[in-house]
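User: What would this chain look like folded?
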Amino acid sequence: MKDESNGYEAVAADFLAGRGSAQTRNAAIGVRVVEAWAKTVKPGGAVLDLGCGPGDPITRILIDAGLSAYGVDAAPSMVSAFQARFPGVPVERNSVERSDFFNRKFDGVIAWGLIFLLEPDAQAQLIGKVAQVLEPGGRFLFTATRRACVWNDAMTARRSESLAPEAYKWLLESVGLVPINETDDEGENHYYMSAKP
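Assistant: Here's the prediction, encoded as structure tokens.
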């Protein structure tokens, strides 16, 4: 049976202890970029956190910004931790590719640390699904490297692949999304931001 969590269920205990805890939330890399992005989403809007993990810090940032958060993650341990931290927030245990949340509309979608865990074809399909569920004016943020490369994920040792910025721009535009910004955070994560006209 395929591990739809891309190896993260096997390392969930270490992840939750080291990077997904309340103690590490304020020092987490990327917090300021995500906080700024959340302010661009329609006030009170619904935002889907793809690969939400335990929800800290990304989902918490969305909630603190007054947005209606939804999460999806394939790792059972991550979903359990999410439910314990955010008992009233809808979360689905599923692969992002097959999420039932793609049957509704959102004002924003965020995929932090996720896209490059998928095969290139799956990345393209996911970007297409995001475009379909975004409301007009909706925002999409995802992280990937600044250049095309292949490496082994630091936690799972599984293959990861980032496409070139030009490829991501083409994928976004091909499904009707407009690239609006790219930026980096203090941990050298690269962010791609787009909007649905």
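Residues 121 and 127 are 10 Å apart (CA to CA). If you want, I can go into more detail on any region.
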